[in-house]
Amino acid sequence: MPSSPLTIAVLLLTTTCLSPGGDPFPEAAGKPAVTSCPETPLSSGGIPRHREYLETVVKCLDKSWRAYFARTGVRFKEPAVHFHEEPQGIVCGMRLADVDAFYCHGGRSLEFTLTGRWIDNRTDLYPFKVAAHEYAHHLQTLTGLRRAYEARYRAAAPTRRTQLQRRFELQADCLAGVFMGSVRSSLARTERDWSALYEAIRANGDADGRRSHGTGAGRAYWFRRGMTTGSPAACDTWSAPASRVS
User: What is the dihedral of CA 117, 115, 138, 167, to 10 degrees?
Assistant: First the structure.
């Protein structure tokens, strides 16, 4: 019988490292099935196209992860999805002007701004990856990983907190890679497109003294790990050495 989120939280908090072990993403559950998720046009058409693109990706994510969690015993529920045409105001405690997309834990919702450099006139796979990363935070919530992480974060010394945060974010990068690997054959993309995506990921590592998401090289490593293994169980950033979550 799968462990409950509360059991997982207790396990995580009583171990030396915040390792989910085999509970949230068990080896026995295997990999998400290879499925089809063709992209809709994005490089022109403005906000309506941006919304259509993201809606398509989220539907694919819903389908893929619902099927996967049916094998783990974790109760699956789709996240709510909200789109913001104008990046103004505050949503879930976040200033929309400061973000591209994020997951709202309290509302269990994906929040997407529909304008900005992250999505305007893009011809690469970066918006696809961003959606998959934010969706991964929903998976961390469903499995109880987020609850355990937040409890450990509150109890940790300040010098340890940023490393815990990086482990949390890098796991989301890895899970995003797992999903994108499962739909890769349906995307009309060349090897050059995939190389461009890795470059975009490396360019979006921690900067200006921030240590919250990992270096560009670290983010690319964990995304690639998810892509190449295709296994959520391979995304155990919690037991990885500190050098892998820098």
Answer: 20
| CA 132 – CA 78 distance, rounded (Å) | 13
Nearest CA to 180 out of 143, 222, 217, 230 is that of 230
DSSP letter at 237 equals G
Name the amino acid, one letter, at 69. F
Closest to 99 measured CA to CA, from 85, 108, 111:
111
pTM value is 0.91
User: Mean pLDDT per segment of 10 residues, for the chain of length 246 residues?
Assistant: 41 42 80 96 93 98 97 94 94 94 97 96 96 98 96 94 96 98 97 97 86 93 98 96 94
- End-to-end CA distance of the chain: give it in Å, rounded: 35
Angle formed by the axes of helices 158-183 and 216-229, to 10°? 40
Tokens 């409950």 found at: 4
Token pair listed for 142 = 């469903």
DSSP single-letter state for residue 19: -
Cα separation, 173 vs 56, in Å, equals 20
Phi and psi of 148, rounded to 5°?
-65, -40
Instruction: Assess contact for 45 and 30: CB atoms under 8 A.
Output: no
Pairing of strands 80-84, 109-113: parallel
Q: Would you tell me how many other CB atoms lie within 10 Å of the CB of residue 29?
A: 20
Question: Which residue type does 163 have?
Answer: Q
CB 63 within 8 A of CB 186: no
Reported as half-sphere exposure (CB side, CA atoms, 13 A), residue 170 has a value of: 35
